[in-house]
Amino acid sequence: LLSLLLLLPCFSFSIETDTIKPNNPLRDGDVLVSGRQTFSLGFFSPKNSIRRYLGIWYHNVSEQTVIWVANRDAPLNDTSGLLSLDSRDNFGIYAANGTSLVWSAKLPAGNFAARLLNSGNWEMSILDTCKKLNP
Fold it and tell me: Where is the Bulb-type lectin domain (predicted)?
């Protein structure tokens, strides 16, 4: 029983809607929402444009107000984009369903997750602690 209680913090009993983890990319059409539902992150097209961008905007406002754009200089031409933490330690935007890297930020080696905070910022955290407890 004590062993089970020690492992409980490694399990999540709720669905996280503010986090991207390895092997679970954010696809165009999906949206992350910060814990207090202040900000959203996802792919969008500005008015009168077919180009797609990854951005952060205020959640639940009548007119989408984008506050940050990742791929401003490299917009996507269609809805095949995804945001992923990949096996090469890249946090990146991919086009063509994951075959073409468009924008990336290199991470140190490790098993990371990216979380959208209530401030509108990103938080990167290492996921390895539970992995070591569960070989």
Answer: 17-135
**Is the per-residue pLDDT at 106 higher than 50?**
yes
Residue 46 CB coordination number (10 Å): 14
- Buried b / exposed e across 54-68, counting CB within 10 Å, b at 16+? bbbbebeeeeeeeee
3-class DSSP state for residue 22? coil
What is the DSSP pairing of strand 39-44 with strand 53-58?
antiparallel
pLDDT value, residue 128: 56
Residue-wise pLDDT for 27-54, tens only, equals 999 999 999 999 999 999 999 999 999 9
Percentages helix, strand, coil for the chain, rounded to the nearest 5? Answer: 15, 40, 45
Q: In the 8-state DSSP scheme, what is residue 28? A: B
